[in-house]
Amino acid sequence: MRHSFSSVLPETRESRAGQAVALHQLTRVYRSGGGAVTALNQVTLGFEAGTFTAVMGPSGSGKSTLLQCAAGLDRPTSGEVWLAGQELSRLSETRLTVLRRNRIGFVFQSFNLLPALTAELNVALPLRLAGGRPSRAEIRKVLGSVGLADRAGHRPSQLSGGQQQRVAIARALVTRPEVVFADEPTGMLDSASGREVLSLLRGLVDGQGQTVIMVTHDPVSASHASRVVFLADGHVAGELHEPTPQSVAARMTALGAGSTGS
Which helix H or strand E contains 243, and what residues bound it? Predict the structure, then answer.
């Protein structure tokens, strides 16, 4: 088993060619009252296209902030985020919104499906918001890719938790994004449904060359990734390749013992 620590990302544009997402000296400081909290401190990381990376760390380590900055949901205090060939801090809010809508997929812990809409209409929503008119065949094909072609007409209340999350994944995939960001995607699922969702995410990488970046607190979930990045106190604390639940748990135990406090 191979262990490696935070790799420094070369700074030339050419060196980013194989990176789906590249973070360079990323810092995010939150100010509250008269104080300041540094959630990320000069983090430099690259995420290669066609890979599955899990991001882990103790509470307060900065993993959720990293995901939000990498996905363009939050602007860093300093540093650079490169995604889809563009440096996000240089984009206006309008251009950033368009990039998120067209080039990024999101999967959240709480599914975020609209309860009044069928699975088919939930999946079609990103395309409709972008002004498109997706065909039913197109949407059914995406639902079929997550094993739910026969549930297209069902509303969220008629689906299990695992099925709802698979609808959310189909919605994330419908725009053919460069990267799918997943924030605790199995957090509200039982173990069997969670395994199904993780196997689906793994299959997107292995079968379709998709790039997945997932925040999780669970060593079993992280073991489905090919690489785990660990954060502690806003810094990259190491990486683990070919992870197992046991190796991830051991690393997390060590980090928790030395961390001050996502």
Answer: none
SS3 state at 67: helix
Tens of pLDDT, residues 147-169: 999 999 999 999 999 999 999 99
pTM metric for this prediction: 0.87
Mean pLDDT of all residues belonging to the chain: 89
Name the region of 209 (left: φ>0; alpha: ψ -120 to 50; beta: rest).
Answer: left
- Taking the CA of residue 261 as centre, how many other CA atoms within 13 Å lie in the half-sphere pointing to its CB? 4
Terminal-to-terminal C-alpha distance of the chain: 28
How many CA within 13 A on the CB side of residue 121?
Answer: 9
* Cβ(67)–Cβ(37) below 8 Å: no
Q: Which helix (H) or strand (E) holds 132?
A: none
What domains does the chain contain, in order, with CATH numbers? 3-258 (3.40.50.300)
Report the candidate in 249, 179, 241, 251 with the shortest Cα–Cα distance to residue 221.
249
Tokens (6 digits) for 214: 């997932």
